[in-house]
């Protein structure tokens, strides 16, 4: 007989009888779905807005010739414009300008309006009528005017006719807002000037940053990009709008992938919680299932009944998770922007939009997780023999399969497969096998717990006191229920431990790295953001000659492109002694001593070594000053600030090769007795434009950097908190279900004279012992998972290496919380179990 006749009533009765257990299951699934769906919505909204920005800035261009941040010779433009495949070409100057009074920059473009109207019409300003009446009709060519996009006007709280002041070098440059750009979108914060005015006012004479090209009809963009490549100077590449969007998305791809995996961790933990609750509920209801079998319900009917219960939990949890995730995404985008703390989408505040496909996927994941969590208990309930299941004490028979040699062999196989997966390389730049290794290690650890529990509880020394003896005998001779409870504890606590160790290791590594990189007592910067501010040779001389400054070291930070498909690499020119580079760089390899006749040395970060396959001693070519110049890789250094790599070069060598004398930062060593505050006051007075300099001491830089780090890991902390909460709920649900499943046992103990208080103490001791074993196993397994995160996932995702650091205080607090929660929950659940009359509890056995 099928179970459909009883199914609905059975499920409704179970949920009404145990509303808290039902609610916990729904919340567990909802939390995982909400986290994953929110992360997906936020990332999708931010990437969509950034893609719209790229399209708005490129307009109708088929190809963009993009050069380094410092620019390339404008003499390239006429050669490109005369190519037979080119219908129109528009030269562009591009500068990220610092706005007075703001730390973030505004992208300023210089365009030739007569050429841009054919290629990028969104970048041709519309003159405001009132401004045109005041100043005539030549505002498009006026060197003192700028046209702002609607988003930029809103962001800066300006309107046509207002003045916009930008910083060039250390001097202010005032521009009049003459009108509005057609370019629209929340992220399109851009200003446009005449190209000649931009080169003059922004001090970019003779250089361009890009050339936008509209091809003639029938010309293939990819083929043209390949054909024009030999004509381009070093460091200039031909890219399509698709390539630009791809490169933009690459900036945050690894960050987004890791966030999605962490979100799925919460869903995975929820699935384990559903398994724990369903398994214990199935044990408690074995007699009910046996009675259904006795009256004609088939095995398949029982299987469908239990799986249907999990499906109902999954549907309710997934639906709630989608609603919560959408609200969470909307709140994050409104109040924190689209970067999720990672700093990848600065200035982007897109709006969340409902997308049916991701919603359907996460809904299906939530339902599937709940159903999978119910599958094993359902199979066990369907396999039970009705006559045997109707007898008391049959619960351990059903859990005996968990302790078979086959289960142990499966655990060992999963652990071995996880170790092998951890040794495999990344796939398309993502640690796919690293994630697989974590899943396999977690699965193997959970499967091994029945054997571990049986071994531990059987070897614990016995006590002469009655209650401890009862506790140890129960755990040793009937470990099945304890094993089920352990699954949820081990899964949740190991994930808590792994994330805590990974984040702590990263934070400590960043702090140590900053201390090595910041040897001077005072630092200054021309601007906190953008590339329009710089220190000229005169500024540098004034800084070095300021009374109280004993020594000054200057740094030039710019960017070069080694691969058009990847984001640019930072080039850092600073004083470096080739014989002792470790004095300025945190090297990870022994430095190579330069020999006579060798190419000039450079030191590459770990990311450059991984992404471009460079190694110490290798001769490489870098695009500098429009040429490919030879260098020798003299060492690899650790850099936690630039995910896509940095190359350090001695400042004097950089100036000799490029003739670039501008710098952006300075490290200052002060004379004896001069306080940093005194030096700052003197520098502001002695350097022209010194009031615009940004000063910071090493402690302030470290504090600000660690604040950014914590902001970047804010979502990780949130997901870890969700895992902790789900884990604690799971402990409560599992021990509560265990106590209810043992009401007949407690009734018999009451007949033998054991007091209610003693049974409560016994249950609390059992809960504490089981939780303690789960915590110890979770700590061991979590350490293994953390090693995979630190030594596999993190280097393959971000190309950073670090040492393992154990946050003992946090781990001790988490472990104590789990053990105390288990003991208290077991104690409270004993009151519910003992509320049943002792005679009624055991009469089924008479």
UniProtKB/TrEMBL annotation:
It is a multi-pass membrane protein. It comes from the Bacteria. The keyword Protein biosynthesis does not apply. The chain crosses the membrane at residues 20-39, 261-283, 303-336, 356-379, 408-427, 433-457, 478-502, 717-740, 761-788, 808-827. GO terms for biological process: lipoprotein localization to outer membrane. Pfam families: FtsX, MacB_PCD. Its main location: membrane. InterPro entries: ABC3_permease_C, Lipoprotein-release_system, MacB_PCD. This is ABC transporter permease. It comes from Trinickia violacea.
